[in-house]
Design goal:
Shape: elongated
Number of domains: 2
Largest sheet: 4 strands, antiparallel
Number of helices: 5
Order of helices and strands: HHEEEEHEEEHEEH
Number of strands: 9
């Protein structure tokens, strides 16, 4: 089942009347593009998404999935053998951590887990950032103006535009969108 987009075209237009002249396709493509960027940057899905992970077995009782906010497990196979419904019932979901706990451990070479993860609904800040992103990208394409200005020097000086730069806190390069995204919690897992 495909995930529900953060906003459909009508909902986006209702949030910002400046989108009234944009086609449904332009809005929907902008929303899809934003979803990908926002989820990668913040490390969490802001709408329920289905996923399948193939992991190595472990002797530990915890198995860590590649996503956080796990809400349901559809199936688990260990080395090609599916867990029964009663075995699945013995698995504890630590959703916010993206972990599954099983007293019997996760012995096996290959564990395949089908599950659902993400927020039930996108937070208001995400919806505002999404709407702003769609507007900025559409206006940029229509006008040929590339980005927000970061700095400008006078007397035949130079203009510096905002471009995407994750290390500088600009995942999209649109200043207001990036400000909103940076106000959200970061769920990305640090690797040492």
């Amino acid at each position: 089942m495909p995930a529900t987009p953060y906003l459909d075209a009508d909902a986006a237009r209702a949030r910002d009347t400046r989108l009234a002249d944009l086609t449904d396709v332009v809005i929907e493509n902008g929303v899809a593009d934003f979803e990908e960027k926002a989820e990668e940057y913040r490390g969490v899905a802001y709408t329920p998404r289905d996923a399948t992970a193939t992991l190595r077995g472990t002797t530990a009782s915890f198995l860590f999935l590649p996503h956080l906010k796990v809400s349901a497990v559809e199936s688990i196979t260990i080395d090609g053998t599916a867990l029964s419904e009663s075995e699945l019932a013995d698995v504890t979901i630590w959703g916010d951590e993206g972990a599954l706990e099983r007293g019997a451990g996760w012995y096996g070479t290959q564990i395949v887990v089908a599950y659902t993860h993400g927020f039930d609904d996108p937070p208001a800040t995400v919806l505002t950032a999404c709407t702003e992103y769609v507007l900025c990208v559409a206006r940029s394409r229509a006008s040929g103006v590339s980005r927000n200005t970061l700095s400008e020097a006078t007397d035949a000086g130079t203009t510096r535009y905002s471009t995407p730069d994750w290390s500088a806190g600009r995942p999209t390069g649109w200043l207001e969108v990036d400000r909103l995204l940076n106000s959200l919690p970061d769920y990305r897992v640090s690797v040492f």
